[in-house]
Amino acid sequence: MSKPESKGKEVAKITSECIACGACEAICPDDAISISDAGDKYVVCPVKCTYCKKCLEGVCPVDAILTDRV
Ligand code: SF4
Ligand code: SF4
C-alpha cells in the first residue's frame, strides 16, 4: 500500500535526445535551464525549476523535455 513514487516535487527534465538548440533556455522564466559542462546538451536545475511547464508546451523540436520528480 506504500507509494514510493509520491514524494518530492515535479520538475522539468531534459533527456539525452537534446540537440542543444537553446529554445528552452530562452523561454524559461526562472533561469533554470543552462548548457551542460560538456556543451553538448542542456540541463534543468531542479532547484531553480518552478515547474511552470513553459518548456513542456511544444518548445522543444525533438521532444526532449519531460516531467521528473525529485
Ligand atoms: S518548467 Fe518552467 S521553470 Fe522549469 S525548466 Fe521549464 S520553463 Fe523553466
Ligand atoms: S528545446 Fe529541446 S533540443 Fe533545444 S536545447 Fe531545449 S531540450 Fe535541447
Blueprint of the fold:
Elements: E1 10-14, H1 23-27, E2 33-35, E3 42-44, E4 65-69
Antiparallel strand pairs: 1-4, 2-3
Bound molecules: iron/sulfur cluster (2 copies).
* Distance from first to last alpha carbon: 21 Å
Named at the architecture level, the CATH assignment is: 2-Layer Sandwich
Strand content: 15-25%
Order of helices and strands: EHEEE
Kindly give the count of domains: 1
CATH fold topology:
Alpha-Beta Plaits
List low-confidence stretches. none
- Percent helix among the residues? under 10%
Structural class estimated from helices and strands: mainly beta
Biggest β-sheet description: 2 strands, antiparallel
Features:
single chain; 70 residues; mainly beta; Alpha-Beta Plaits; two-stranded antiparallel ribbon; two-stranded antiparallel sheet; 23% strand; binds iron/sulfur cluster
